[in-house]
Amino acid sequence: xxxxxxILVSLLERPGxxxxxxxxxxxxxxxxxxxxxxxxxxxxxxxxxxxxLDVRDVPQRGRPDKKEYSVAGPGRAVLAAxxxxxxEPESLRHDLAVKIRGAAFDxxxxxxxxVERHHRVHGDRLAHYLAGERRDFxxxxxxxxxxxxxxxxxxxxxGGIAYERMTIAWLDDVLATxxxxxRNAPPA
Length: 188
Prior knowledge:
Number of strands: 2
Distance between the termini: 49 Å
Mean pLDDT: 89
Order of helices and strands: HHHEEHHHH
């Protein structure tokens, strides 16, 4: 997927400035597609030049005008064409999994700290996703009933939550295995 498609989706959900778009990437789309502020601004400028986006200047009190981007007709057509194209299922490419297999040729217990670090990162990400779910979809302030866009946003977030839970369960299994192998290792 190109960053262009993620930007088109976000701007169709809600037009906004480059800064607002970057914040959305940090808050929601960034769960599954990351981009730096510089990348977002560079792609916005190119997409504007290609006629995929409309831009209007929004006056601001005491600050320079901001540019608000929205999707133009050709941008909708690009997104619609992409939505109808098949994509290859993603394959798992996981550096940690290769390290774990390679630990058979060294000291498996040496990976415990690294696996614990990954466990913390995925635990933090899961907590972040769950907080976002409560804030945006299931908590007391969440809009009800949800519209199609919100339902689809939520199902994607639920996929991320399920992935993080699965990854944490797998890391628990890896840690248990590394600890067991460390206890059973022959003395050096």
